[in-house]
Specification:
elongated
Length: 216
């Protein structure tokens, strides 16, 4: 069960948040195109109007970049909750770190509408970009926890199918016993640190299960 204080922010499904992140990404790409166009016009004409237009479009693209990051982090936070149910201390810390990062980025949003010079725009952009290393590590950690939890759930499902097969076949053949033992060995708790290796092991177990269930 999710801690009570975490359920308060889980008002939207991961599907809704994914769609919002897609929309934010689309808005960012549109504003980026406008930014490139106004930047080129300013570099070509160097007029007061093209300068103001370039600053305005730069503010817009930076603001939309920030909103896109916020939308993605919200989606990732909800996906982490869905996949892990925030079942241990490490997952709780990652969840709260995502919440902290979302709040920090939200607090920066108003800054992207006020700069009236390229110097101020660059300063705000650099402040935002200085968070990227920390944010990227947080995203990577959350993804690893999500993947690990999903693989554990998959492993448990495969184990239940194996147990069901054994209960329905009290006297398997010698070759079947060998296959069952092989599947069982692949489903034992593992210390594999590489998630791709773990995924392959479970995939092999799933294929063997399909084979024995397909036999008459």
């Amino acid at each position: 069960m999710l801690p009570v204080f975490l359920t308060l922010v889980l008002a939207q499904s991961s599907g809704d948040l994914y769609y919002q992140a897609i929309q934010s990404g689309t808005q960012y790409r549109s504003s980026y195109s406008s930014y490139i166009q106004s930047k080129n016009q300013f570099l070509q004409y160097r007029t007061a109007s093209t300068r103001l237009s370039s600053i305005s479009d730069t503010n817009a693209v930076l603001g939309n970049r920030n909103l896109w990051q916020i939308a993605y982090l919200k989606y990732l936070r909800q996906t982490l909750a869905d996949a892990t149910n925030i079942a241990n201390y490490g997952q709780t810390i990652t969840y709260l770190d995502l919440e902290t990062e979302i709040n920090a980025l939200n607090s920066m949003q108003d800054q992207f509408s006020s700069p009236d010079s390229f110097e101020k725009v660059n300063a705000i952009s650099q402040t935002w970009e200085s968070r990227l290393e920390k944010s990227d590590k947080l995203i990577s950690n959350a993804k690893l926890q999500i993947t690990s939890s999903r693989l554990t759930n998959f492993q448990n499902q495969l184990q239940s199918y194996l147990d069901k097969f054994k209960s329905e076949h009290a006297s398997p053949s010698a070759s079947m016993i060998s296959t069952l033992n092989l599947i069982d060995s692949k489903l034992q708790p593992t210390k594999q640190s590489n998630l791709e290796d773990r995924k392959k092991t479970l995939s092999d177990a799933a294929k063997l299960l399909l084979e024995i269930y397909a036999q008459p």
